[in-house]
Amino acid sequence: MKAKEFLQQARFLDQRINSKVREIEKMNALATNMSAVISDMPKAKGSTTSRMEDTVCKIIDYENEVRENLDRLISIKREINDTLEQIDEVDYRIVLQKRYLEMCSWEEIACDIDKKVRWVQMLHGRGLDKVQELLDRSA
């Protein structure tokens, strides 16, 4: 995988993670808001579980799936962060962290580190080269 592709994974991880967290919250809300229907009608013979119990089990299974996906997303983000932490040159690391983990624009990064945009883009290119070296070494 190329360095830029590797780092670009982080650009949308926060959105995906937040989406997964919201899904879990919705599932929990569904599970806690369910109520049993009280009826004087006789229950069907041979039925060992209630529909409510089945629904709660399905919600729990789905929530577990979502949590597994969330764990994978967090692992990818951690891997990206760990890779950036291995870069010795602080300027490269800062530019890459701001660009890919904080989703900053070139102008925002330039303002934050008090450099010109063109210089930030040059640091970015050199930082990508360092990330590629790290990826090639770990492959």
Short description:
The chain is built from six helices and no strands. It has helices spanning 3-8, 13-33, 51-85, 90-101, 106-113, 117-138.
Describe the structure in your own words.
The chain has six helices and no strands. The chain has one domain (3-36, 49-138). It is elongated and about 75 Å long. It is mostly helical. The protein starts with a helix and ends with a helix. 75% of the residues lie in helices and 0% in strands.
H/E element sequence: HHHHHH
What's the main sheet like?
none
Number of strands: 0
| Overall 3D shape | elongated
Structural class: mainly alpha
Multimerization status: single chain
Q: What proportion of the residues is helical, as a percent range?
A: over 70%
Number of H/I helices: 6
The domain count comes to: 1
Layout: helices, strands, pairs:
Elements: H1 3-8, H2 13-33, H3 51-85, H4 90-101, H5 106-113, H6 117-138
Helix pairs in contact: 2-3, 3-4, 4-6, 5-6
